[in-house]
Design a protein that fits this description.
CATH architecture of the largest domain in chain B: 3-Layer(aba) Sandwich
Radius of gyration of chain B: 23 Å
Shape of chain A: globular
CATH superfamily of the largest domain in chain B: P-loop containing nucleotide triphosphate hydrolases
Structural class of chain B: alpha/beta
Strand order of the largest sheet of chain B: 6-7-8-3-9-10
Largest sheet of chain A: 2 strands, antiparallel
Order of helices and strands of chain B: EEEHEEHEHHHEHEHEEHEHEEHEH
Oligomer: heterodimer
Distance between the termini of chain A: 35 Å
Number of helices of chain A: 11
Helix content of chain A: over 70%
Number of strands of chain A: 2
Shape of chain B: elongated
Strand order of the largest sheet of chain A: 1-2
Number of domains of chain B: 2
CATH topology of the largest domain in chain B: Rossmann fold
CATH class of the largest domain in chain B: Alpha Beta
Strand content of chain A: under 5%
Number of helices of chain B: 11
Amino acid sequence: MNNLRGVYTIWYRDLIRFWHDKIRMVGSLAMPFLFLFVFARGLSASMMPVGSGTDFTQFMFPGVIGMAVLIGSFMGGVSVVWDREFGFLKEVLVAPISRASVAVGKTLGAATIALLQGSLILSFAPLVGVSLSVQTVLMVLPLMFLLAASMGSFGVLMATRIRTIEAFYAVTQMLMFPMVFLSGAFFPLRGLPGWMNVLMKINPATYGITPIRQVILGASPESPFGITLFGHTMSLWNNVAVLAVFGVIATLLAIWSFTNQEQFSMAF
Amino acid sequence: MNHIIKVENLVKKFGRFVAVDNISFTVAPGEIFGFLGPNGAGKTTTMNILCTLAKPTSGRATVDGFDVVRQQSQVRQSIGLVFQDRSLDERLSALQNMRFHVMVYHVPASVREQRIEQVLKMMELWDKRQDEVRTYSGGMKRRLELARGLLHYPKVLFLDEPTLGLDPQTRTRIWEYMLELQQREGITIFLTTHYMDEADKADRIAVINYGKLIAMDTPEQLKKMVGKDIISVKTGDDDRAAEEIRLRYQIEARHDSDGLTLEIANGEEFLPAFIREFGTKILSVSLRRPSLDDVFLKLTGREIREGKASGHRMRH
């Protein structure tokens, strides 16, 4: 009970802060829009349809949603570094709530904000000619949230070990862009060089973005958007399971790391 | 229980550097206990251990009967903390900061708003409660932190350099609030400081230097340890007065620009008899106690403000 309230309080504060920061909300939409309406439109003019009768912009649409969710949640970890730099983390760490509830609250805060950002992009589906049924939306939102929570806990895990905001951004850029580019967000997972194929299948983000695309663009067995692992074509639930396992491991590591950091080791 | 804080053989090492070197002490309930020493002496490290923010290398400590390593959440529930440096969320309003605090400290929902109003009014911040904290002045932020530290009615309030960097007027007011609270709520105050006038407000002082506890007593007793009170006298004829002092009390008075200065133990008891008996006409007389500065200098051979001489950076 106390743990739940701790999680809620930590989560709620991060949402208030996000709400105060309207520019961040608008700013976070800029890049996805650029990808969708400039990059994808520009490329689709000179590209063949990707398959199943979808054009390149439509193909990119779920990928851009996935990218926004991934970046938003992963970057959300910065709030831990931010709190440390501005001193508020001490108030949090000395409170009678468990470190685990702090880690989970931070993760859920980052995930919720990323989900909001992703949902905003989802609402622009008619602009790219993708029609969404209520059922599709109800299915894709939990998938987006799973991706957000997994990447959010990964971001929090990074943040517990990084002391400055600059270093956090440097490290996340280094990890995040390879994750986005090697996730199948921008191109189908077929006919790629062997090394790239391997990296894409190791990348947990692949298992988050693929099911989002399968749900939005249709997931028939012969769909060209699937992942084949050791000759087995992964179903939607297979992908979800892989991502969920990654998410649970990242969350446990984040909790462990939060519990075992000595906040003031050099403050004397 | 005759103590609320108990520290036994506490040691904290950072690599080969010994920040806290085998210290032991107890603090009684309701006491104001001052931890005095220069920067880098080990004050904040000791306090961090007592607040569960750092783990001791060896030794043990209890706060309100709870072990600071094994019963962290009980300890955290019993204490309030005001840190040396900022720990407010400056993007939130004062009210939002307070609400966060009452939530994480499990203050019953029925009394939350009432408590918040009470402490904010006491610190004279109620009118500004909706403003974002980043618009506050340094003194207001400090008062807000103190207000927050009191919200959950802690048994022990830890104050790490509570008035560092504040102007004298604000310092005086903050101290008025704290003393009032200590009286009314009977809370124990544990404070670290390197301001001597602040340490003087404590019931007992522990002097710490290079991680070692080198003295612990009431401010009065510590000053007595240093030695004598200082009396300055102006007379009609200083030479004759000096001669009389030498003969009558066997004390060598020192001539200086304002007259004569003499050092004597128990100056308060000496002074009435001195004035009554003295043959030379006295124009004015004043009695000065040795300050804690004198105590520190005597104990350590260094001024308390030269903390950086130890060569260790204070934080980070």
